Amino acid sequence: MDLQSVVDDIYADLAPRIGEGKVADYIPQLARVNPAQFGIAITTVGGEVFSAGDAAVPFSIQSISKVFTLTLALGKAGETIWNRVGREPSGSAFNSIVQLEQEQGIPRNPFINAGAIVVTDMVLAGHAPREAIGEILRFVRYLADDETVGIDDAVAASEQATGYRNRALANFMRGFGNLQHPVDHVLGVYFHQCALAMTCRQLSRSGLFLANSGRDAMSGHSVVSNRRARRINALMLTCGHYDGSGDFAYHVGLPGKSGVGGGILAIAPGKASIAVWSPGLNKVGNSALGSAALEMLASRTGWSVFE
Ligand code: GLU
After folding, report:
1. Whose CA is nearest to atom 2 of ligand 1?
2. How many C-beta atoms surround the C-beta of residue 134 within 10 A?
């Protein structure tokens, strides 16, 4: 299969739609991003990279970072993390507080904001906030095999200044005893992880271990066990797209995680890790063009977890 032609064709087919969707505007710094951008990159388990469009432009990965912090927290605390966060799709918006009250401060899954904030609290254990941010950054640079990956401080500051709902979620959970560190510390780390800036090429490289049974396909290093990689993929499939997770599984059929910066990381187990980015979002907060691109990719390559 000629994957370069596949990504070139997807780019060409979607080019007339570039700019579609609505850029997230509740984080002021994200509202300033030019919507007319679209990139796609595939890193295969054989180590080849194929890309098209704006695949070398860094963007704010936002909630995609939740996959990396979940991986870190599982490494630190193992399966005990499931005492504090669930594994069920929420069927609610990413920043909803409604279920948290009914379910006594235990968030539905690690990929909605409340769940990710609990996971960040776990990564913070034994660290000052600055050290935890450093640990997350080092881990993502290691996965990307690229020391140039950084954090966009303007985006982090913009979220610090306006993150009222995240502050409400965190305080609520602290009230239920499900946060062990001060709310400001946890959110400081959370906002910085969300502000990681990466290109599609870097992001697809970072997800490669999930496509290769937990092992970095290039270096051969084991990042997580095969079983853990499968489980992270299962959570991405069921919970990775906010209230659009079922729709994404139906149309794309691959584990994926999206972010309000317009990026999506998708995993084709045994085949490749794929990153797409276009800032305009659909109604449930997933990249409009990114979702369309992944649906085309899945149908043109035949990649699916349901073969
Ligand atoms: N930093 C964003 C927030 O907490 C992440 C949202 C997202 O990408 O889903 O609101």
Report:
1. 62
2. 13
